[in-house]
Specification:
The protein is 35% helix and 23% strand. The chain is an alpha/beta fold. It folds into two domains: 4-129, no CATH class; 144-362, 3-Layer(aba) Sandwich (Rossmann fold), CATH 3.40.50.150. The strands form two sheets. It has an eight-stranded mixed sheet, sandwiched between helices. This is S-adenosyl-L-methionine-dependent methyltransferase.
Length: 371
């Protein structure tokens, strides 16, 4: 693992590392602190920096699941805070002397090269400080189903807690991979109706549409991507359009508290990183109760974060089977499995992932009470 306090080259007036050393150091910091999830290319329109790192976590068909047991994760240590502060100070120090450093080669071809490195440092500093400062970026994700395909996601700036849907999160990549590797198990089949809730940038639904297309189900299978906030839906529509698919795909507004019964029932529902408040799992239960068919499956995959304690437990409680419907059926977790953090995938505060497979259990409490 890259340790900034040990490995960043010394920077001070009159002593600046080589271009290669600077680029290598900046890319290492970005890999350590960036909010970027898996991808083969990153661009930042607001910073004018494109292709300045190649963080890849592409599908190699291995290490999908961790063991189906809870994983113990370490809490953030004082060392983590120290390293982040060291990284921020190093980048700030470099940017502070950059004007003098660039002036040394003004009027030469190297001036543009040095200017680009300074831009890289500024963007990296935003990542160290937090992605909300880094501006909108485009990410290209690689997946393998029947054939390899790329998806380009446009992520917007996060300005507040309601804007989490503006960016692509690691859980969406994990769930997308699973759909690619096991399409039938995750609902991709002829005649299926699929729904992604809390779609955000839409990676999961867009990947599902591509897999449907590759498997030849475009005439019979449809997927709907949904979210709540207007600006998130606007960006979602753009991502769906820009990654065009022949699959019947639509984007809708969906209120989990009052799901539109006119949508009908869905065979499979997806939710990636859809819990940022302890109440969200219960709202998802309400939506699934209205929209999931009796034979359907709801796949929820969320990140485990030190900053969001209790999200996993809220899902476990909401789908424990205690909310029995009038017909005696209840939505219950049928399977629960865990994923380890993977280098180059996810964000700095993510310590792991958990996936829930939720199905209707038929009259489980009615039969128990009658005994």
């Amino acid at each position: 693992m890259f340790i900034a306090s040990r490995e960043l080259p010394i920077i001070k007036p009159g002593r600046v590392p080589s271009i290669n050393e600077l680029v290598g150091a900046i890319n290492n910091l970005r890999a350590l602190y960036t909010s970027t999830v898996a991808g083969i290319k990153v661009s930042n329109p607001t910073q004018g920096v494109e292709g300045w790192s190649s963080i890849t976590a592409n599908d190699d068909g291995k290490n999908v699941y961790a063991h189906d047991i809870p994983v113990e994760y370490e809490v953030e240590s004082d060392d983590d805070t120290f390293e982040r502060r060291w990284s921020s100070n190093w980048l700030t120090r470099f940017i502070a002397i950059s004007e003098e450093w660039m002036a040394e080669v003004e009027g030469t071809e190297e001036f543009n090269t040095r200017e680009r490195v300074v831009e890289m440092a500024a963007a990296a500093l935003a990542c160290v400080a937090g992605m909300s400062a880094a501006g909108p970026i485009d990410r290209t994700f690689s997946f393998i189903s029947r054939d390899r395909f790329d998806i380009v996601m446009h992520d917007k700036t996060i300005n507040g807690h309601q804007d989490v849907g503006a960016q692509t999160w690691g859980a969406a990549v994990h769930l997308s991979r699973l759909i690619c590797r096991h399409p039938e198990y995750f609902g991709i089949k002829s005649g299926a109706r699929l729904l992604e809730v809390g779609a955000g940038t839409g990676l999961v639904g867009i990947v599902a549409a591509k897999v449907i297309e590759q498997l030849g189900y475009i005439d019979t299978t449809e997927i709907i991507l949904s979210d709540y906030l207007d600006d998130i839906i606007e960006n979602l529509r753009k991502n769906v359009h820009n990654n065009g698919s022949e699959t019947k795909t639509s984007v809708i507004h969906l209120d989990w508290t009052e799901p539109d019964k006119g949508l009908g029932k869905f065979d499979t529902m997806y939710g990636a990183d859809v819990c940022y408040d302890l109440n969200h799992a219960y709202l998802l239960h309400k939506a699934a109760s209205e929209l999931l068919s009796k034979e359907g499956t709801f796949h929820i995959l969320i990140a485990l974060r030190r900053t969001h304690i209790g999200m996993k437990e809220s899902v476990q409680d909401a789908f424990s089977g205690k909310f029995v419907q009038p017909d005696g059926d209840a939505l219950c977790i049928d399977k629960e499995d865990y994923f380890d953090v993977e280098k180059g995938l996810g964000r700095a505060d993510e310590t792991g992932y958990v996936r829930f497979e939720i199905r209707w259990k038929s009259k489980i409490f009615t039969s128990q009470n009658s005994q």
